[in-house]
């Protein structure tokens, strides 16, 4: 049984963390340490900056010092596949790892909680999407996790919207083994308006609209432009994987159409809770504590 926290970090404190480049902006230490405190675990969760050329060396060193577990973020999710002794079926399926667990072979077991994080954030809303229509904007790694998450919820049809024909074609070829009907459009397609009218769920899986201190205009941008969203139907759900600014301009715009709104903090909290569950073996993770810690941090 893990030692309970009796004060500040000490000689028996165990390490968990997130590895990325850059990683100083991450909310994960805030939400994870809030959960660790609530659970009474003598663990500390750190953001660990790591350049790609040092990745293998760093994770071997962390395993040697008995690190309890790691989250993996950009740009390491793909290269993490190559340094694991074992991989979960989900990690193999989507070709990316976001969670490392110490393995019995003194290395790492790799899995991916992004799918479960996205899926759980929708299930909490208790909306039945069976047979309904979904749109995913984007064809990157996040879009892939979203697609696989939606596939488990029995949607009738999922449409992928991409900027270019090449990226769309590649994405559809690489994800052609799912149960749900999948099709795709480029964003200039004139029929896109009709797809939006028929959509019950629309997910922005691009960085468009993200707050960027180097570019003050970036947070005012809206995926696919502003005018096309006049076709939104009341009661549909808009899910923006971005969580800064809060709310994004896209979610602000959707309010006038009486749409349900979810931002990226919810997915971050849910996938983080899934990771912590795997590391600690504790089933009941204080998700509400994690969510409130993230919300408070975003207000500051």
UniProtKB/TrEMBL annotation:
Its EC number is 1.1.1.25. GO terms for biological process: amino acid biosynthetic process; aromatic amino acid family biosynthetic process; chorismate biosynthetic process; shikimate metabolic process. One of its GO terms (cellular component) is cytosol. Shikimate binds at residues 26-28, 73, 98, 114, 243, 271. Keywords: Amino-acid biosynthesis, Aromatic amino acid biosynthesis, NADP, Oxidoreductase. NADP(+) binds at residues 241, 264. GO terms for molecular function: NADP binding; shikimate 3-dehydrogenase (NADP+) activity. It comes from the Bacteria. Residues 264-293 form the SDH C-terminal domain. The active site is at residue 77. It is an enzyme of class 1 (oxidoreductase). CDD domains: NAD_bind_Shikimate_DH. It catalyses: shikimate + NADP(+) = 3-dehydroshikimate + NADPH + H(+). Pathway: Metabolic intermediate biosynthesis; chorismate biosynthesis; chorismate from D-erythrose 4-phosphate and phosphoenolpyruvate: step 4/7. Residues 18-100 form the Shikimate dehydrogenase substrate binding N-terminal domain. HAMAP family: Shikimate_DH_AroE (MF_00222). Belongs to the shikimate dehydrogenase family. Involved in the biosynthesis of the chorismate, which leads to the biosynthesis of aromatic amino acids. Catalyzes the reversible NADPH linked reduction of 3-dehydroshikimate (DHSA) to yield shikimate (SA). Homodimer. This is Shikimate dehydrogenase (NADP(+)). The gene is aroE.
